[in-house]
Amino acid sequence: MPQFHRIEINRTEWEVPERYQMLTPVGSGAYGQNIVRISAVDTTTNQKVAIKKLARPFQSAVHAKRTYRELRMLKHMNHENVIGLLDVFHPSSSLEDFQHVYLVTHLMGADLNNIVRTQKLSDDHVQFLVYQILRGLKYIHSAGIIHRDLKPSNIAVNEDCELKILDFGLARPTENEMTGYVATRWYRAPEIMLNWMHYNQTVDIWSVGCIMAELLTGRTLFPGTDLRFRFLSITFNRLETNINILQKYPYYCLCVFSGTLARADIHQLNLIMEILGTPRDEFMQKISSESNYNAICMPLTNSLLRKLF
């Protein structure tokens, strides 16, 4: 049984094995206040590591499932662009005292959210970062896993611009029936927003597209706190801003996009339906949220029709 020592950092008590020294705060994770990270030095390897504390991971069945999934998946991850699990420990001496779980991973310098807020990235940087995201995502998808919560704060980068995908608390294997409320709102694919239960790995690709746009422009592509507002933003938002971004790239790059960009606002909704399919009656009957239902069947007012045509 390893010897543990206690230390308080930012009003949070940590109880870690003595092999981990020089503990300093790093930041918060995907669970908000329920997860905190610190950096430390593993004295057995003299390596800097990140320690992530899952506070009350078993307070509900949902939290217990997320904890189990993250541990199970991280245990098997072995890729340059995906965070790996170095150690797992808990200070509890009995099952009754089992309240906290600590995960030890490689230490990364910053996440993409901090980077995009503090500096403007060159096109070469964006290209290299997106390439690494897709490379790591291909590895994850090849294992039949959907991450379901890709966002800038869940992607870490070190000083050498090496990237790793983090936080698998919402990840799960591809199944016939999925849960609808996943992914941070700004990076959520339309099929999840509309409460579709049979989505697949393509929801992660949508999130990567939103992240890439944010890296290029320095701002969120589809902001908003209301589901209806975000759906309108995705389907009816004008393309001038996106076209201005694309115009600075070589002609051959524009040719790639020319076949996928909708020609007018109203065509964007048609394009989504063309790719994802038109909702059937049985699907509409399964929509539990009235706001989601209204977002799909939104009435077209005279003013909106004049704007569209």
TrEMBL record:
It is an enzyme of class 2 (transferase). Transmembrane segments: none annotated. Signal peptide: none annotated. Its cofactor is Mg(2+). This is mitogen-activated protein kinase. One of its GO terms (molecular function) is MAP kinase activity. Belongs to the protein kinase superfamily. CMGC Ser/Thr protein kinase family. MAP kinase subfamily. Its EC number is 2.7.11.24. Keywords: ATP-binding, Kinase, Nucleotide-binding, Phosphoprotein, Serine/threonine-protein kinase, Transferase. One of its GO terms (biological process) is response to osmotic stress. Residues 20-309 form the Protein kinase domain.
